[in-house]
Design brief:
Helix 4 (79-96) crosses helix 5. The chain has one domain (3-144). It has 5 helices and 8 strands. The model has no long low-confidence stretch (mean pLDDT 96). The protein is α/β, with parallel strands linked by helices. It has helices spanning 24-31, 40-43, 60-64, 79-96, 130-137; strands spanning 3-6, 35-38, 53-56, 69-72, 100-103, 114-116, 124-126, 141-144. The protein is globular and about 40 Å long. 46% of the residues are buried.
Length: 147
Amino acid sequence: MHKIVSACFAGVQCRYDAKHNQVTKIQRLVQEGKAIPVCPEQMGGLTTPRNPAEIVGGDGKDVLAGNAQVIDNQGNDVTKAFIRGAYEALAMAQRVGANEAILKERSPSCGSCMIYDGSFTGNKREGLGVTAALLEQHGIHVSSEET
């Protein structure tokens, strides 16, 4: 059974700042063909680098329900790209039969327990990112590299 993992963990420079968050054991899973890397933000059409974004008004569940937005630090609404990317990541997970996802904590896409609070001040709050919420809604277990 495959897993999907945040592409930044596999060394892909896809973070908003064009850096990565390489985790050797996760990169090894990808190299061994046991995990598929995904970057929901790129899959949703956002460029790299891009402005940092945070969820305003809730968490990923609220975004999917239409009750919160993803806004970048310049005030641009990037909600549609985040939702599109979440559905692309879900489609990839379903194609490969993944029942688990290891995602980057605190990301507005991938956070599995903790996200930034939408104030762009570094404050964090409990909650799921958009992709993490969608995957969980479809029965895919989501965890972070820190759990």
